Amino acid sequence: MNSFFITGTDTDVGKTYVTAGIAAALKKQGKDVGIMKPFAAGTPQNTGYKSEDVQILSKAAQVNDPEKLVNPYFFLIPASPFTAAKNFGIKIDIKMVLSCFKQLSSLHEILLVEGIGGAMTPILQNYFVTNLIKDMNLETIIVTSSKIGTVNHTLMTCKICQYYKIKIRGIIINNLNLNGYSMDVLTRDLEELTKIEVIGSIPYFEKFNLEQLSKTIINEFDSLFQ
Ligand SMILES: Nc1ncnc2c1ncn2[C@@H]1O[C@H](COP(=O)(O)OP(=O)(O)OP(=O)(O)O)[C@@H](O)[C@H]1O
Ligand SMILES: [Mg+2]
Q1: What is the number of helices (H) and of strands (E) in the chain?
Q2: Which pTM was predicted?
Q3: Domains in the chain and their CATH numbers?
């Protein structure tokens, strides 16, 4: 399996869930997998890494890489890197982020990079998550939910990735909204509309369960591991 950039149709769509599940699945298969969350935002945690996402991902991949490599930018407000950097008077150094990416890539067989927000989340003026994916030269996996409205968001995300000439490995549907689309209908329609493979879907979990999540991914996402 290659390294991937995991983006989504929106914030809170399940990028961390999916990335953690794939990382744990790869560990089960004896692979050396690293994780990166170049930009994170929100309330810092007291223990371990500042970002909860980085904490979850590091645990799933069973890695202990330095925070400054795994998460070079952590912002104390839930906002895009562009907005947060402006608010705090910080200058974002993309070269430094790409250098961290290169170092982590050399440390691990496979690297999973979780984005922030969606594909067009701004990082700098005229530099978005799409530009970062392109600069990292990674294929992307698009995480989408089952919420009504997701077809629109998924199509827009696919179109913008194609505009930036990013290779899309596939779509993963996270069944977050139990009263939204059924998995069968959404899979059928997204595949027909985008001509992109829906790799699989993740069920709703009452409580985060990495063991169950990684088992689902191994059993149902076989195309991903070929
Ligand atoms: N399959 C699922 N079943 C139940 N809860 C889920 C599922 N997937 C995600 N969640 C919950 O939904 C919320 C958002 O998920 P997650 O943090 O993975 O999204 P994200 O896209 O990584 O968000 P962010 O943009 O903040 O990085 C979390 O509280 C998570 O626990
Ligand atoms: Mg996340």
Answers
A1: 9, 10
A2: 0.97
A3: 4-225 (3.40.50.300)
